[in-house]
Backbone:
């Protein structure tokens, strides 16, 4: 993977954060179709990448604290497992408008990187099975490919089994 500078990568907060950290990553751009029913599946199809290597960024409310969950687009988030991973009791999906305001990204383009407010993050343990994974680079139609270890380090993520098929 080649390190990209922010001009080449589109200069989203996510790619700026990766560049500033000196991380190795590759940006993948594709034409976003607003009619597609799933942002993540659309990204996997457009890039020709297996859906188990493309991860979606979801924002949940765990006992009153917004928390980021990064899970494969091929599966779903287990809210109970997410709460447990961060020492909480109950989790529910966050209000989309609140998630957008807090992260600084729009739904379908929320990246776990470069968020307006740093939130606790949990990366699904299945990411460790891959050399690289893809996550949103901060806007619809733009993904960043990087190692799960780099993602976990930069987001200070807990790695736990929070996804289910």
Residues:
């Amino acid at each position: 993977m080649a390190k990209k500078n922010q001009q080449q990568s589109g200069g989203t907060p996510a790619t700026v954060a990766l560049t500033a950290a000196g991380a190795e990553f590759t940006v993948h751009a594709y034409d976003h179709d607003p009619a597609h029913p799933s942002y993540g599946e659309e990204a996997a199809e457009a890039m020709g990448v297996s859906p188990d290597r493309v991860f979606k960024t979801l924002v949940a409310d765990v006992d009153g604290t917004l928390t980021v969950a990064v899970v494969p687009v091929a599966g779903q988030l287990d809210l109970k497992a997410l709460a447990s991973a961060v020492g909480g009791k109950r989790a529910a999906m966050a209000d989309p408008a609140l998630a957008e305001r807090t992260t600084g990204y729009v739904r379908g383009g929320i990246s776990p990187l470069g968020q307006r407010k740093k939130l606790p993050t949990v990366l699904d343990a299945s990411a460790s099975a891959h050399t690289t994974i893809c996550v949103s680079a901060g806007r619809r139609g733009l993904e960043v490919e990087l190692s799960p270890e780099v993602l976990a380090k930069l987001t200070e993520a807990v790695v736990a089994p929070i996804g289910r098929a």
